[in-house]
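Protocol step 4 of 6: structure prediction from sequence.
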Amino acid sequence: MVQLTISTASKPPPFARGLPLTIDVAPDATIASVKAAIVAKYPKFKSARQRITLKGEKKPLIDETTLSDAFGGQFKDGAELQVKDLGPQVSWRTVFVVEYFGPLLVHPLFYHFPRFWYGQDVQHSAIQKYVYTFVLLHFIKREFETFFVHRFSQGTMPISNIIRNSAHYHILAGVFLAFDIYRPKYSATSPYIVNTIRNNETFLWICAGIWAFSELSNLHTHLTLRALRPEGTRKRGIPYGYGFNLVSCPNYFFEIIGWATIAGMTNSIAGYGFLAAAIWIMSIWAAKKHKNYKKDFGKEYPRGRKMLFPFVW
């Protein structure tokens, strides 16, 4: 057994004022067992709130890492780790559920109660019905994936971030998009719709086909990613196959196609605004994932694979 000291990287929370803590552990003990020892001493200091690092470093150590590996094989008496309180946490699954529920609530309110928002009834056009169906099916699919498909590498996030994360969907894909699309401008009797391509059945069916292709392709890539990570692990592998042979994040690429279809078929300012925001945010996510893939797998990772857009970027 080896004596390990656990000090604080910042001001300790009120329920762990007794830190630093010294415990006896085996070299093959994991970071998860260190967190458990802290919880045993300070029951309110839950594992999800703890970020464990080597002394003086900021990179968190994952739960599966052994102490021997964390210290590069030099784990001995006097070794020290630091713990930081991350504050109250909420599961990523809960965050996703809250994010996607917003548009599922907002769109029906605008679609079914137009008099409240626009001061008049709206005879819905075919394009409004299509978009309404697209949006609801998209977010129902996302909720389904949250419960039955996604496997999260990180268990929790600070509860304070849930508002920030949800705003993108609740405001842009929810309130702004719904308010713009279901207003009288797009109604069945509007000059913007009557005798235009937006009222052409063939055009609408083509848009529906492109949208359905993007959604099913997005689901397929999520299933591919799920198959790479056994349940209860943080294992990472190189994804191959449909979409992944061209870009690192085809799930984002296919989602962009879906929102671009809605923006293009309606020519909605809110639609283009949400599309622009989605491309910007998913580009940041894709860049980070692409970089991590290349860092983790080195020469094994396909050199010609782009980040987000096939053959381009």
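Step 5 (inspection) to follow. The longest helix spans residues 269-297.
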